[in-house]
C-alpha cells in the first residue's frame, strides 16, 4: 500500500494505492470517504491495482472554500492526472459510487481516452423529473439538522470518516445533483466505453408510505430511460438501499470482476 497527497485548487487530497492487476480508480460519493469504502477496495485489490482517494471536505482531505459538482469533478481529474506515484500503465476501470458515479460519467465524456470502462454504483441516473420536490426539501433539511445526525458527525470529526461540509452545503449539492442528472443523458452519448450499472432497488428505503415509493419508482424509471436509449449498458439491481456499497461489498466486487452477482446473491440483472 502506498499513501501520498496531491494538491488541487488549494485542497490537499489524500490518495491510496495498492493491489495488483488491472488499474482501477474508485471514486467515493457525497458524504462517503475512502475509509468507508475500505471493504470494497480490499476485495478489488485481489485482482486490481486500486486507487482510492477522498474528495474535498471528506475524510483526510482538507476543507475548501467551495463545494460544487465542478469542484468535485476537478478533484477526480486531478487524481487521474497526477504523474509519478500514479503513472498508471493503462487506462483504468473507473468506478464511482453515488455522486462519484456522476463524476465518472462527466470525466469519461470529457476524457475519452483516459478510461477503459465505467462501473456506476447507485448514481448517474438520468431521472425523468427532479428527485427532490419542495416536500422532500423539508424532510431532507430536517434529516440533516437531526440531533442524532449531528452527534454522528461530531464523533467522526478528526477521523478518516469525517465530513466537513455543513448541512446547508450538503443540501445545496443534492439540489445541484438533481440539475446535473437532468442533462446527463447528453454525457452518456459521448462515451464509447463499456458501462456497467449496479443499482439499488430501494434507494429511499422499503417503506410503502411517505416519499419512498415515489423515489424508488423514479430511480428505476431513470435507469429504464437510459437503457432504452443505450441497450448495451449492463445493469444489475441489488435488493438493497443506497448503502449497498457498504452492505453488499462482496456482491459488488464480484459484479465488477465478472459482470454478474455471485450465485445465490441478491441481484437481478437486466440487459
Q: Helix and strand string, N-terminal first?
A: EEEHEHEHEHHHHEHEHHE
Structural class based on helices, strands and sheet pairing: alpha/beta
The appropriate CATH architecture is: 3-Layer(aba) Sandwich
Rounded to the nearest angstrom, the distance between the terminal CA atoms is 37 Å
Helix content: 25-40%
Main β-sheet, spatial strand arrangement: 1-2-4-3-5-6-7-8-9
Number of helices: 10
Strand content: 15-25%
Categorize the overall geometry.
globular
Low-confidence stretches: none
Number of domains: 1
- Annotated CATH homologous superfamily: Alpha/Beta hydrolase fold, catalytic domain
How would you sum up this structure, described in words?
The protein has 271 residues and is an alpha/beta fold. It has a single domain (2-270), classed as Alpha/Beta hydrolase fold, catalytic domain (Rossmann fold, 3-Layer(aba) Sandwich), CATH 3.40.50.1820. Helices cover 39% and strands 19% of the residues. The protein contains ten helices and nine strands. The protein has helices at residues 38-44, 69-81, 99-110, 134-144, 147-156, 167-182, 184-188, 212-229, 244-247, 249-258; strands at residues 2-8, 11-18, 22-27, 48-53, 93-97, 117-121, 195-200, 234-238, 267-270. It has a nine-stranded mixed β-sheet with strand order 1-2-4-3-5-6-7-8-9, with helices on both faces. α8 (212-229) links the parallel β7 and β8 (234-238). α1 packs parallel to α10, α2 packs across α3 and α4 (134-144) runs antiparallel to α6 (167-182). The protein is globular.
Amino acid at each position: 500500500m502506498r499513501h501520498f497527497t496531491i494538491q488541487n485548487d488549494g485542497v490537499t487530497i489524500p490518495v491510496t494505492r495498492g493491489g495488483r492487476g488491472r488499474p482501477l480508480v474508485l471514486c467515493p460519493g457525497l458524504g462517503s470517504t475512502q475509509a468507508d469504502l475500505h471493504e470494497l477496495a480490499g476485495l478489488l485489490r485481489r485482482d486490481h491495482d486500486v486507487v482510492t482517494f477522498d474528495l474535498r471536505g471528506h475524510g483526510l482531505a482538507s476543507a475548501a472554500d467551495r463545494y460544487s459538482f465542478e469542484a468535485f469533478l476537478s478533484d477526480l481529474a486531478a487524481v487521474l492526472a497526477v504523474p509519478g506515484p500514479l503513472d498508471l500503465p493503462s487506462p483504468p476501470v473507473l468506478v464511482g459510487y453515488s455522486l462519484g458515479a456522476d463524476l465518472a460519467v462527466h470525466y469519461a465524456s470529457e476524457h475519452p481516452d483516459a478510461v477503459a470502462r465505467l462501473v456506476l454504483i447507485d448514481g448517474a441516473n438520468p431521472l425523468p423529473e427532479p428527485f427532490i420536490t419542495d416536500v422532500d426539501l423539508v424532510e431532507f433539511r430536517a434529516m440533516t439538522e437531526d440531533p442524532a445526525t449531528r452527534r454522528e458527525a461530531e464523533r467522526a470529526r478528526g477521523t478518516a470518516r469525517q465530513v466537513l461540509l455543513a448541512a446547508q452545503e450538503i443540501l445545496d449539492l443534492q439540489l445541484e445533483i438533481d440539475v446535473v442528472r437532468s442533462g446527463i443523458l447528453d454525457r452518456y452519448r459521448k462515451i464509447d466505453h463499456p458501462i456497467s450499472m449496479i443499482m439499488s432497488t430501494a434507494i429511499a428505503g422499503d417503506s410503502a408510505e411517505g416519499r419512498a415509493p415515489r423515489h424508488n419508482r423514479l430511480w428505476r424509471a431513470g435507469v429504464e430511460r437510459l437503457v432504452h436509449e443505450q441497450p448495451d449498458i449492463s445493469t444489475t439491481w441489488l435488493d438493497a438501499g443506497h448503502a449497498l456499497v457498504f452492505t453488499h461489498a462482496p456482491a459488488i466486487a464480484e459484479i465488477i470482476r465478472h459482470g454478474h452477482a455471485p450465485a445465490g446473491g441478491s441481484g437481478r440483472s437486466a440487459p
